Amino acid sequence: MTEARSTVDSLYGAAAEQEVQREAFLNGDVPVAVYGLGKMGLPLASVFADVSGNVVGADIDPDVVATVNSGGCHVKREPGLEELVGSVVSEGALEATTEPSEAASRASIHVVIVPTPITDEKEPDLAILDAVIEDIGAGLESGDLVLIECTVPPQTTTQRVVSRLEEGSRLEVGEFGVAFCPERTSSGRALEDIRGAYPKVVGGVDSESTRAAEVVYEAINSEGVLTVSDATTAECVKVFEGLYRDVNIALANELARFTDELGVDVNEAIEIANTQPFCDIHDPGPGVGGHCIPYYPYFLIEPFETETSLLETARAVNDAMPSFTVEKVREGLEADGKSLAESTVVVLGLTYRPGVEEIRASPSIPVSEQLSDAGVDVYGVDPMLDSVEEFALDQVELDEVAELYPDAVVMVTPHEEFDDINWGEFHRNDNDLSVVIDGRDTLAGKEIEAPVYTIGGGGKLGDSGRGGNR
Q1: Fold designation for 321-454
Q2: Whether the Cβ atoms of residue 147 and residue 111 lie closer than 8 Å to each other
Q3: What is the DSSP letter of 383?
Q4: Would you kindly state where each structural domain of the chain is located, as residue ranges?
Q5: What SS3 class is residue 362?
Q6: Which of 271, 300, 321, 340 is 20 to 30 A from 457, comparing alpha carbons?
Q7: CA–CA separation, 90 and 79 (whole Å)
Q8: In which residue ranges of the chain is pLDDT below 50?
Q9: What gap in Å lies between CA 6 and CA 24, rounded to an integer?
Q10: pLDDT in tens, 394-432
Q11: Residue 436 parent element (H or E)
């Protein structure tokens, strides 16, 4: 048994007992490389380092690498991450390099978590993944295990990753393993999610890949591992999770558009409908943002021939919500005798969700663009952001809003810093605030003199008071 323990430096195809392999991983005898040290990659690399004590992280950004190697943390607002990075770096458990090929030559477990965006033509862009796989292939050895965590179109692992690894390494699957093990992590709770908020999903290109991946993630995730039939099934799990949310939100948003015609608070109806156990309608809002939900539908829409009318309709509905929001601003101003083109509008919350620094696909981007295109003087407030160059607006601090004498305010993303806004300040000096758009139904109970229109809740524009808000 002593000899078996000393010779376990890789997991795929290892002859040692499962528990011996697990101990080798936990003792750092099986070196790990994590490719991509972004907002999800750095937390993942840090947890691997904390558990195994032998991790090299690869990122092509030299500033990121320098920060990590100094024990710093460039990913902000992730509870516990700064302390964890400092700890594992000081212990020698984590180091970083700008050379993925160097990381590949040192590791026998390769964990890939790089961006997989879409192009302007709405097609999956896997160029970064391809480049990383090429580097791994050049350093791949018999017994190595490649774990893909970044979201990809189904069949990517079997039809794209494997062939590139085989070509670069001159090895074949069976000599090395590959599994798709999707990240199921949200910004602002990355460490909690990685360590076990939900079970880890694992699907290998062969049974040995699945088994070896299970050894790894059972040591990482306290909720255990859910093994599925194969890598493509695991890819579907991740994509389907996002598609469900996009379609569900689209239903909520379409129902919200009936608010005025039906004369009801749709949000109230949704809340009560959801007391039935078979109903789980999500919340409507001014749009859908982030690096996941708005993109994943195109991982099925574009690469495959099967018709995707529902997915495409859901995308169209959700993409139209910023325009709906702007139209409600226009209606509120016109009800008060004002022109949109001659107005000042303040957008509160520019990131895609509260408490998170991410702006990718944020509804505030098209909202600001459409207001600006209409001739509006647009200003934005967001405590998460130092720069707003992606938005068609000027950034101001919250305490400067009253001095702008806004004609309308749009609450897109309700950061907690907005909870204590003194709405009365927006009316001082006889300023006439004509309308407030409550994008996420978070202003109920606030003392707001202006008419408030809540997406899904309604409100009688042109009248003072709370309108249709509960």
Answers
A1: Rossmann fold (3.40.50)
A2: yes
A3: T
A4: 2-229, 240-319, 321-454
A5: coil
A6: 340
A7: 19
A8: 1-5, 429, 465-470
A9: 8
A10: 999 999 999 999 999 999 999 999 999 999 888 654 568
A11: strand 435-438
Three-state secondary structure string covering 246-305: HHHHHHHHHHHCCHHHHCCCHHHHHHHHCCCCCCCCCCCCCCCCCCCCCCCCHHHHCCCC
**Contact by Cβ (8 Å): 406, 434:** no
Q: What is the DSSP letter of 168?
A: H
**Contact, 249 vs 293, CB < 8 A?**
yes
Q: Is 429 left (phi over 0), alpha (psi -120 to 50) or beta?
A: left
pLDDT of residue 424: 85
Longest dimension (CA), the chain: 85
Three-state DSSP at 453 gives strand
How distant, in Å, are the alpha carbons of 9, 240, 287, 298, 447 from that of 311?
Answer: 45, 11, 16, 9, 40
Contact 364, 412 (CB under 8 A): yes
Q: How far apart are the first and last CA of the chain?
A: 68
Task: Determine phi and psi for 202, rounding to 5 degrees.
Answer: -135, 130
8 Å CB contact between 344 and 377: yes
Which pLDDT score is estimated for 427? 66
* H/E segment holding residue 57: strand 55-58
Residue carrying structure tokens 């990753």 = 161
What CA–CA distance (Å, rounded) separates 454 from 283? Answer: 12
* CA distances from residue 417 to 16, 112, 289, 361 in whole angstroms, order as listed: 55, 36, 20, 22
pLDDT at residue number 431: 61
The CATH code of the domain at 2-229 is: 3.40.50.720
- 2-229 shares its CATH topology with 321-454: yes
Q: How confident is the model at residue 161, as a pLDDT? A: 98
Side-chain half-sphere CA neighbours of 276 within 13 A: 7
Cβ atoms of residues 31 and 97 within 8 Å: no
Give the residue numbers marked as catalytic.
238, 292
Can you tell me whether residue 412 is helix, strand or coil?
A: coil
| DSSP per-residue letters across 173-200 | BTTBEEEE------TT-HHHIIIIISPE
Torsion of CA 280, 281, 286, 289, to 10 degrees: 40
Q: Which fold has domain 240-319?
A: N-(1-d-carboxylethyl)-l-norvaline Dehydrogenase; domain 2 (1.10.1040)
Residue with tokens 């070896």: 212
